[in-house]
Task: inverse folding
């Protein structure tokens, strides 16, 4: 197109065959150059090939000029133009490919433009057309205006096709990325499914093992507890010295503690396996609280703990498994008494639109903030030392939480070290059958 801006005092035309040949040669060599730049040859060699391509196109295009004039060439300018095109194209390709980002592409494009302009206008300066009427112009030529329109249309066509191709290429790359991501997700999903199945299988094996072992342990434990009770009652005669009676009492208490632990482990294994069934019925909240208070009354007396429960006669009726909810409440009361020597434990009931809440509050040793998040997990205790002061398996709160969750509720815990702890059972409104008019805090 820039060659068409070359103005002379005589008419100029172009040989169509050579003009077409120059364009085809440029396209082919540029393709080779860009492939080399992106391949093993590297951007320097690829850019040099593209520089030779635009030089070849230029001088073939100059060879296609038909005019009544003699062409006189300055070969030093020719060499300079080719050198400028090759060197600047190699530099531009190196800049564009080196970092492979938008800034490098823009910089490379600017250097490409400089290379083309330097090569072209230096090459145009290398040619002098001296009028020579003796030279006849062939008829099979293209007028400059016609060639300008044809080249402009071809350029827009090539640019349009290139943009469309780029869009399709980007779309294809995007689709390929999505397909690759999909494949990775499917692989991850399959791996997670396998891991889940293995975990479920391991959980079932663990639950079966615990259930079997618990059964095997409960049978002799019941015998030990039963026989120790008979000996304590001296049903078949005196046991002898007071020391024997003391040992029999220790055996009986140890058997009861071990049986309680076995029952806890069995309950946890059933809940882990999803086999815990609720025997639901309607009952009065106050009755359940009063029953639980009676069970732990002696424990509280032995620990010097005052039990306070203004809601032991709460008339609110709820639906649930009374035995399991009372078990949960007993776990909370037992823990509160154990960790509140000489203090007091309060049981309160509140009710609102969200449901009913049963809170057990103590003035005991409390729980450190760092331990609150893990204290509800199985076999976890705030004090995990072998020589810890307080006994227990660490299952009480975990079982309580699971039992409450089986009722569609939740268990919350708030505590401050050396101040006390509040553990609250939250049951949803769907569990409440009849509500009392006023609620005590």
Result:
């Amino acid at each position: 197109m820039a060659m068409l801006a070359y103005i002379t005092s005589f008419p100029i035309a172009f040989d169509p065959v050579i003009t077409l040949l120059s364009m085809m040669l440029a396209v082919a060599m540029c393709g080779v150059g860009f492939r080399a730049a992106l391949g093993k040859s590297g951007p320097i060699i690829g850019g040099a090939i593209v520089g030779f391509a635009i030089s070849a196109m230029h001088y073939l295009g100059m060879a296609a000029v038909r005019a009544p004039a003699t062409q006189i060439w300055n070969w030093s300018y020719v060499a300079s133009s080719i050198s400028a095109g090759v060197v600047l194209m190699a530099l531009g390709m190196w800049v564009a490919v080196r970092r492979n980002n938008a800034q490098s592409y823009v910089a490379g494009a600017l250097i490409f433009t400089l290379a083309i302009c330097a090569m072209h206008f230096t090459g145009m300066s290398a040619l002098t057309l001296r009028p020579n009427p003796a030279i006849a112009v062939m008829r099979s030529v293209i007028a400059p205006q016609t060639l300008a329109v044809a080249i402009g249309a071809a350029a827009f066509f090539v640019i349009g096709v290139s943009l469309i191709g780029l869009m399709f290429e980007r779309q294809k790359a995007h689709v390929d990325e999505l397909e690759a991501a999909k494949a990775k997700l499917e692989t991850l999903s399959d791996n997670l499914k396998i891991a889940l199945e293995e975990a479920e299988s391991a959980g079932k094996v663990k639950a079966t093992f615990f259930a079997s072992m618990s059964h095997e342990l409960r049978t002799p434990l019941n015998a030990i507890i039963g026989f120790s009770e008979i000996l304590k009652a001296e049903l078949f005669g005196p046991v002898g010295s007071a020391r024997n009676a003391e040992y029999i009492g220790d055996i009986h208490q140890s058997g009861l503690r071990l049986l309680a632990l076995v029952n806890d482990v069995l309950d946890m294994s059933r809940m882990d396996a999803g086999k815990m069934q609720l025997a639901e019925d309607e009952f009065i909240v106050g009755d359940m609280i009063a029953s639980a208070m009676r069970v732990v009354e002696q424990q509280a007396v032995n620990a010097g703990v005052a039990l306070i429960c203004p809601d032991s006669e709460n008339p609110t009726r709820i639906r649930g498994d009374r035995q399991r909810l009372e078990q949960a409440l007993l776990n909370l009361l037992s823990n509160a008494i154990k960790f509140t020597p000489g203090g007091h434990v309060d049981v309160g009931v509140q009710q609102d639109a969200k449901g009913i809440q049963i809170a057990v509050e103590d003035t005991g040793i409390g729980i450190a903030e760092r331990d609150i998040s893990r204290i509800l997990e199985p076999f976890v205790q705030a004090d995990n030392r072998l020589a810890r002061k307080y006994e227990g398996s660490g299952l009480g709160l975990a079982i309580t939480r699971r039992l409450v969750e089986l009722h569609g509720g939740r268990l919350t815990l708030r505590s401050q070290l050396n101040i006390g702890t509040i553990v609250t059972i939250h049951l949803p409104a769907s569990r409440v059958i009849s509500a009392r008019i006023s609620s005590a805090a």
Summary: The chain has three domains: 2-142, 165-276, 281-434.
